[in-house]
Amino acid sequence: PLTGKVSLVTGSTSGIGLGIARALAEAGSAVALNGFGIAAEIARTKDQLAADFGVEVSYSAADMTSPEAIAEMIAATVANHGRLDILVNNAGIQYVAPLDQFPVEKWNAILAINLSSAFHTTRLALPAMRQNKFGRIINIASAHGLVGSPFKVAYVAAKHGIVGLTKVTALETAEDGITCNAICPGYVYTPLVEAQIDSQARAHGISREKVIHDVLLAQQPNKHFASVEELGSLTVFLASEAAASITGTALPVDGGWTAH
Ligand code: NAD
């Protein structure tokens, strides 16, 4: 369904972003990857996507804290692939600490990567999308874009912010063949979640097992982590013609968490 389209997925060297990049490539889209990691592993991921799905794959190492690097990434994507149709703002980091002990540099980094980077990619991608009268902007927010949890002040603020960015983007592009939606996952098992099991254990003073069952999945009524494949499928659907009238939404994929 996405043959001939070009997708850029930020933070796609790992976890959800990589799962989404795979799903978009499987649907026939060329893919521009971005994110940090070991050069040899990234090269292998790139070659594998190209070989598995027969699509063009490029990679940008742009740091999402740098507006200049983001501008270079968008320009390079359009130059390499000739167009930009689908933008997935997925790069994100987490840090867990009580508000009055929250490191200021972590606040600044989380706001830059989880929120401001999506403002920059969006403002810079819109001209290319408007040119083709087609665009799909998919922001990977979180259930924490809709509700709060203790010890995650920067993350919850940034994710609420990206839901707001999604609404304004949708309104300003509504007549241009462009849609913008946010996906709000509950807990998805990825390296980001693995890392916070230990920090939550320290913050709450409890074991890893107790964190998984009583803290992480306590919120998630179905008691399952969502999978990166589920998020990939939803992204492909939102990018398709079938979703042309869905815009400005924040779609929970959270096993019922935000139904509470
Ligand atoms: P992850 O740690 O597995 O992947 C994060 C990706 O972002 C990696 O590719 C990393 O290299 C990249 N990245 C980090 N900092 C960057 C920077 N400064 N510049 C460029 N790239 C950078 O995490 P994940 O769990 O796959 O999370 C992806 C997104 O999904 C995040 O926005 C996260 O907030 C969101 N999310 C995750 C979950 C979950 O349970 N895992 C739930 C809800 C929302």
From TrEMBL:
Keywords on record: Oxidoreductase
InterPro entries the UniProt entry points to: 3-OHbutyrate_DH, NAD(P)-bd_dom_sf, Sc_DH/Rdtase_CS, SDR, SDR_fam
Gene3D superfamilies per UniProt: NAD(P)-binding Rossmann-like Domain (3.40.50.720)
Keyword hit for Oxidoreductase: yes
EC number: 1.1.1.30
GO function terms (MF aspect): 3-hydroxybutyrate dehydrogenase activity
Keyword set includes tRNA processing: no
NCBIfam families found in the cross-reference section: PHB_DH, PRK12429.1
Similarity remark: Belongs to the short-chain dehydrogenases/reductases (SDR) family.
Protein name: 3-hydroxybutyrate dehydrogenase
Lineage start: Bacteria, Pseudomonadati, Pseudomonadota, Alphaproteobacteria, Hyphomicrobiales
